User: Fold this.
Amino acid sequence: MTNTLHRFGDAESFHDDFVVFAIASKGKNEQGALPKLRRFLEMAVSFHPVNLGDAIHGGALRPCRKMNPTSHWDRDTKPDFQAVISGLDAPTTVAAVFDNRMAAEDFVKAVKDADLGLSVNVSTSIDGAEQCCYAAGIPRHSVGYSLGFEGKTEKLPDSKVMLLSTMCGHGMVSHSLAKKMIDWVKEGRRTPEQAAGYLTRFCSCGVFNPKRAERILEDVARGKSI
Amino acid sequence: MKINPDKCVACGNCTYVCPMGAIYIDPVIYRATINRDECVECYACYNGLSQEHLNPTFVRTVRKMFQMMRIRFDPEPDVCPTAAFEPDELTWPRVVRRAFSDPRVPHESTGVHGRGTEEVKTNDVSGRVQVGEVGFTIEFGRPGVGVRFRDIQQMCWALAKADVRFEKKNPVTSLMTDVAKGDIREDILEEKVLSAIVEIKVPVARTEEIIRLVWEVEKQLETVVALGVGTRCDEHGEDHVVGPILEKLGYQLDRAKTNIGLGRITNTAEPKPVQEPAAV
Assistant:
């Protein structure tokens, strides 16, 4: 699973995008991992993440299976972190997303001190992750580089759409919906926050960064070149 | 996936959320319809759309009235107003589509949710990629293009010819009939999936050769390829080996997934693995 690795954008565009995730390894440390994974999520909350999730149940903003028609006028875009924590019922990958480096660094330090024994990864710009490690006094163990997209790239949409849709590495955020949200924000039909909320709900593991999406939508709507 | 025509009100919301663009409003029956050949069974429509349970007749009437008055109906874009999506009972070989496309379904071969394995994410406890080695993840179809197994097979053939070893605990490897040749079972070659990942490991000296091979094969494929290259850092947390090779090949290294080395083996039943000697 490389669901956070291949986000589209240059290193600068990840200044507000830090995904820290924990995973237990099958046959190595999955026994007794559930409370440790839950602890990881609980700890993350105090560092003000912008999303939190697990790979089975999804993120902190989820679709509703029985939506009340009146919610069209009062849609909740507030993430529910407690639902993610209490819903975790089996070992899987859990993730916390931050929109600033300081929070990510502090969280990494706290995770190191907690000594959970799980594998922890930071997915962001190479420099950003190095700085998180440096701040926590940890040498990097391994690194997985993203080399971007190749092959029939003429089948891909423009860069503005890609910046949004690739934030769900599982591909659950479609290019068409990302494009539609850009258009809606441009037309003033929805705010960047609302549009980011719609996109976030499609991410099935909680690694989508709604704050980065908001920033991108705002920039695109104002005609800023990206 | 199916759309119940008795429930569908042709609002069109689902046509935008399908990652493959496989849903359209059929102008004859005026209902959302799925192009089954293009659908990868990712369930983004079923899982991602919020569901209302409104009366279809009522919604159609309201929509018709609005349409007659040329009033733009502006509902929430991530809602199916009548919960019209109904999962299909998938059988072989179509079930392969879902296994590779719906991230909530774990692969039987790996037990991992998603299309790949743990790769360098757990390298601190698995020791999968050692100093002097490079782990490649070659992902096809992402983002939003999709891939058929016949395209993946082309890459597997080329890699097998180059005498690389495929990662055993990988969903694509588990579908090979001959791992030495890179043959994928024939009955799934036309199946389309949202994405699939081939994983290999080679000595660092072969990094450039493998990348050039991927460049050569990807020209012949009808899809996109995303390359991930994993390596073990030295004792100071530095990589002075693989990064420079990638940069020499013209890659701008912007993003990475960094394993910060906090994992340890805690299972009581599993003995600590013997450290493999570094490959050259």
Summary: Chain A has a mean pLDDT of 95. The helical segments of chain A are 33-45, 81-87, 101-114, 126-136, 159-165, 175-186, 192-202, 210-221.
